[in-house]
Amino acid sequence: MARWRALGDDLDPQIREFTALLRRRIERSGVSITQLAEATGYSRSSWERYLNGRLLPPKYAVVALAQVTDTEPTHLTTLWELAERAWSRAEARHDTTIQAHLVAEARAALGEFGPPPDVGGGEPPRRGRRPGRRRALLFLTGVAVVVLAVLGATFLLRSPSAPERAAATPSPSLSSSVSAQSLPAGVKCAGDPCTGKDPEAMGCGGKHARTAAATWVGGSYVEMRYSHTCGAVWARISAAGPGDTISVTAAGATQRTRIGDSAAAYTPMLAVSAPSAARACATLTTGAHGCTARGA
Predict the structure, then answer these.
(1) 49, 62, 120, 290: most buried, per Cβ within 10 A?
(2) Strand order of the sheet with strand 245-250?
(3) What is the pTM of this model?
(4) What is the spatial distance between Cα 106 and Cα 146, in angstroms, rounded to a whole number?
């Protein structure tokens, strides 16, 4: 029987319940994590992250677990959908916290130039000249300008009414205006710089991504993954075979991956302003071919 780590206190209750359910199904079936990895095509390290609440497993991984543990998959996938929504809400709260922190920094910097506090009458406090005061004020002015610029870039990236949300490809300002300071911890790109990059290596996967569209091609499960945080999509396939190919296309640009020995694989990212601009496709060595609908 696996010895599980305690789930974090900050984990959403629905995610906690779903993770605990997966643990119980594994325990009752007597399947080890190694056996689970071999049977589902997802690595042992991935399952350890899923079962410790660090990442939400993809839907196909949950279906595969149901098959291995002799569980009705419909019930598990229903609970998975609730957990995915909770994960998305947690991501939104995380983004809001970051923006609030930036606002606090901006207000603190601007507060240096506000009126002196009311000391209740009497003589005003002495304002003796100190060397370098002018330089300090100029420095603080610069800090305020930089923070306000970051807030502007964050608004453009997050606002659902921003013009680039309706465009087929991201505007140049998306990639040029985003600074590392405005991105969540661990995320290393947004917009155009993400194109051609590995989504996991750049921190765009996990809680920063969702499945925008999916379909079955033969016996393989094809997903189009979308990260609003990174402004990019990529294709992912599960239960694939050597020689199968998967691709993601948007506005005439394509990223493609040929499957090797692993049963699960994904393409590099492609920058988009919205998942509706892209779709994922797969071509199997059996001759089967299919694509997802455009993302939603």
Answers:
(1) 62
(2) 253-258, 245-250, 278-283, 289-291
(3) 0.45
(4) 9
Residue with the larger pLDDT of the pair 122 and 79: 79
* Closest-CA residue to 60 (of 284, 266, 272): 266
Residue 143 pLDDT exceeds 70: no
Q: Left (φ > 0), alpha (ψ -120 to 50) or beta: where does 47 sit?
A: alpha
Distance from C-alpha of 161 to C-alpha of 50, rounded to nearest angstrom: 34
Domain segments of the chain as ranges: 13-88, 206-291
Secondary structure (3-state) at 207: helix
The residues, ordered by sequence, that sit 6+ positions from 167 with a Cβ below 8 Å of its Cβ are: 273, 274, 277
Mean pLDDT of 131-153: 49
Query: Residue 235 in contact with residue 205, Cβ under 8 Å?
Result: no
Pairwise CA distance, residues 272 & 226, whole Å: 9
Tell me the CATH number of domain 13-88, given options 1.20.950.20, 1.20.1560.10, 1.10.10.410, 1.10.260.40.
1.10.260.40
| DSSP type of residue 209 | -
